[in-house]
Specification:
By secondary structure, the chain is of the alpha/beta class. Strand 6 and strand 7 form a beta hairpin. The structure holds zinc ion. The site of zinc ion has 6 residues, from helix 10.
């Protein structure tokens, strides 16, 4: 019997047992597909941050939250303000490198990407280039790429990813898997902490785990950050451009990258000055997380809550699209993440009908594509006290291919959520997909990560983006289905991530059902989830 049938049968038999109907909700395809096809429609113009389509998405979600009967947040309503700053680089901006008498002028967008999150419309950056290896400072790894060298006013050139494993230390920096130190977000945050004038990341597709198109797209759009201290200059260099700069400095890129793999590495002043003129359109934008609550039923446990999250935003529409150009200028984000936002609506509707012992918070963060900004703002001003928030289950880019015999729970293995997930999967006739090395840093690239950083056990349920080698075990046409899931990489963050009415959504319903069942297992369990001993996120990380 096909797994979805098994799941339905399990749901059904349990539903008929006395008193079970109280607790086990059943997610069905019709509402999920309706919300998905609507949110992914061209009319939503790609649900852009700071764009009309985004405002429309918030209106839709808060309306649905009211229709479903979610309890509003304190202060009434379902909106939580997120104050962010939007910056778009304007023509007339430039970058130049002075190496002794010779000067190198990279082509913006082709050789180099630059932008600012300083909030300044006119900015001149003039500073020496310093190569800082991975730019990581990791106490628990006894690693410091800065060695106390003063970086104030300097432009830091960094590698992305983190120090690779060696024969002597196969598990340093989580071995082949990515750690937070490998993520561009960490690199930018560390450059701010170092008081640097700027940071340039060296792009290679293997180390970034995505091609140049991804940062190029984001830098050619308006970029956002939470209002407050950002970097004067942020950007990327192609590997060829970096190689040319290092050569102009009389250095060899590969030699220095090899040295950066050692603990003895010290920063290298390249003897080159960067002159950059950044002209930007800067605006303050108020966006909104949307959230609603299902109060718990247990007198004691209802004070604690399980959070389900799925970001509503995507990349929006560019100027040509806004100007009515007929070509496709809308990044619909059907899979990323109309799927998760829609699933959360379908799940919330069922949860309202079957409340659990602990309370449940349904959260649709804003501005995830801009650096997990909405969930960062949520954690700073939570709708539910963080100390009483026992877990976050995130849905980002769901399975659009079909039902599977297993379920992806990458990241759950860091806490007791993994054991709970195993039990829930078993009840649904599923197995847990094998844990594969997190080569793309998936754990740090979705909203659950801000909860983890705040010390709350959290993970993202089986993502279509980070499906690795398509290791999901599909029921129908396993090989072809797995290939279709992997092929989604071609649509990731492109205008081609669009909804198709012929999609078999049984896998998406399965993931939503699994996520809700796991949420209930946590919400009804006397004990609350806990991190594994020694887990980096066991303690609050700032
Ligand atoms: Zn996403």
């Amino acid at each position: 019997m096909r797994p979805t049938l098994i799941a339905a049968a399990v749901g059904l038999t349990l539903c008929t047992s006395p008193g079970f109907a109280q607790q086990q909700p059943l997610v069905t395809e019709t509402p999920l597909r309706a919300h998905l096809s609507f949110l992914a429609d061209d009319l939503f113009e790609g649900r852009g941050t700071g764009q009309r389509g985004g405002d429309l998405a918030v209106r839709y979600l808060e309306t649905q939250a009211a229709v479903i009967g979610l309890r509003p947040l304190a202060g009434g309503g379902y909106r939580q303000p997120v104050r962010i700053e939007g910056t778009r680089l304007l023509d007339g901006s430039s970058a130049r490198f002075q190496a002794g008498a010779s000067s190198i002028t990279p082509v913006l967008g082709k050789d180099i990407l630059i932008g600012t999150s300083s909030g300044k419309a006119e900015l001149t950056v003039d500073g020496p280039l310093v190569f800082v290896g991975y730019g990581a400072r990791a106490e628990e790894e006894r690693w410091d790429d800065y060695k106390g060298v003063d970086m104030k006013g300097k432009v830091l050139v960094m590698m992305v990813n983190d120090p690779q494993p060696t024969a002597a230390e196969p598990n340093r920096f989580a071995g082949k898997s990515y750690t937070y130190y490998g993520r561009w977000l960490y690199k930018y945050e560390e450059a701010v902490r170092q008081g640097a004038a700027g940071v340039l990341l060296i792009h290679t597709t293997p180390s970034a785990s995505y091609d140049w198109n991804v940062p190029a797209t984001s830098f050619s759009h308006e970029r956002f950050h939470l209002a407050g201290a950002g970097n004067p200059l942020e950007g990327w260099l192609t590997e060829d451009m970096a190689r040319a700069l290092f050569a102009a400095a009389g250095q060899d890129l590969d030699t220095l990258r090899a040295r950066a793999e050692t603990r003895e590495f010290t920063p290298v002043d390249l003897g080159i000055r960067m002159h950059a003129q950044l002209r930007s359109a800067v605006r303050q934008v108020e966006q909104f997380n949307v959230a609603g609550i299902v109060p718990g039923t247990d007198p004691k446990l209802k004070a604690e809550a399980v959070v389900y999250s799925a970001h509503w935003d995507h990349l929006g529409m560019d100027e040509q699209g806004a100007a009515g150009d007929r070509a496709d200028h809308i990044w619909n984000g059907a899979i990323d993440n109309a799927s998760g936002a829609a699933a959360l609506l379908a799940m919330a509707a069922e949860a309202v009908r079957h409340p659990a012992k602990r309370s449940q918070v349904f959260l649709w963060p804003a501005a995830e594509e801009q650096g997990l900004l909405g969930s960062a703002a949520y954690v700073q001003q939570p709708a539910w006290p963080l100390k009483d928030t026992v877990a976050d289950l995130n849905l980002d880019s769901m399975n659009f291919v079909g039902s599977t015999r297993d379920i992806g729970v990458a990241g759950a293995e860091r806490s007791s959520l993994y054991a709970s997930a195993g039990k829930v999967a078993k009840k649904m006739g599923l197995t847990l997909a094998p844990t594969i090395p997190d080569l793309s840093g998936a754990y740090f690239r979705a909203d659950h990560f801000n909860f983890a950083k705040a010390g709350i056990p959290a993970f993202n349920v089986g993502s279509a983006v980070f499906s690795g080698d398509g290791h999901f075990e599909f029921v129908k046409a396993p090989a072809a289905s797995a290939a279709r899931l992997v092929a989604f990489k071609q649509d990731y963050h492109r205008v081609s991530d669009e909804y198709h009415a012929d999609w078999d959504l049984s896998g998406m319903v399965q993931q939503a059902q699994f996520t809700l069942n796991l949420g209930y297992a946590i919400a009804n369990d006397a004990a609350r989830p806990r991190w594994n001993a020694g887990e980096a996120f066991g303690k609050v990380k700032r």
